[in-house]
Write a structure and sequence with these properties.
The complex is a heterodimer of chains A (114) and B (112).
Chain A: E1 5-7, E2 10-13, E3 19-24, E4 31-37, E5 44-50, E6 53-57, E7 64-68, E8 74-78, E9 87-94, E10 104-105, E11 109-113
Parallel strand pairs in A: 2-11
Antiparallel strand pairs in A: 1-3, 3-8, 4-5, 4-9, 5-6, 7-8, 9-10, 9-11
Chain B: E1 3-6, E2 11-14, E3 19-21, E4 23-26, E5 32-38, E6 44-50, E7 56-59, E8 62-65, E9 75-77, E10 86-93, E11 100-102, E12 106-111
Parallel strand pairs in B: 2-12
Antiparallel strand pairs in B: 1-4, 3-9, 5-6, 5-10, 7-8, 8-9, 10-11, 10-12
The chains are: A mainly beta (114), B mainly beta (112).
Amino acid sequence: AAGVIQSPRHLIKEKRETATLKCYPIPRHDTVYWYQQGPGQDPQFLISFYEKMQSDKGSIPDRFSAQQFSDYHSELNMSSLELGDSALYFCASSRRTGAGEKLFFGSGTQLSVL
Amino acid sequence: GDSVTQMEGPVTLSEEAFLTINCTYTATGYPSLFWYVQYPGEGLQLLLKATKADDKGSNKGFEATYRKETTSFHLEKGSVQVSDSAVYFCALRMEAGNQFYFGTGTSLTVIP
């Protein structure tokens, strides 16, 4: 069965560069979530989208932006990268139904900022 | 490929009941295993972890033992409380590459 696909799996950038992370949800899923997990930390919720509209916003820095496209894939754009942005970035998708929501996670993109 | 399979929910228990949420994994190497919890309206939190075979992770009365022979990491608690109502995710992380693989989550509701 298709799962949540994230690309790239690994990314190395230098300070002040930009990065774009991509998330391809499971087919027919309408909701995407982004999480950031620093070394030794719990995943922190960044932002979510439902039906291509931002639905919730967490601790996402102003230097980051994200969107969900017409095919439901999502991109997290990160500018002016800082050393502290080095983390594992997760994407999760779900399909909202009246019976509740089940999250399916991607395996993450490891971003290293040098 | 590497993957995690956990028990389908939802699970509904009475307070003080015994809880088991099954989790099995498939991995080609030697992963670390985790249980995360998501309380209503909150983000994911690490509940417990184990990094090698026969390790037991424990926290807040929850326990899970890394069983290599059965490729399992079942979550248990002897006496659940209403405050344990949440969604529980089993996950593994491969030692190389730092990739995580999550289960699909098990929703637990504990009723008084």
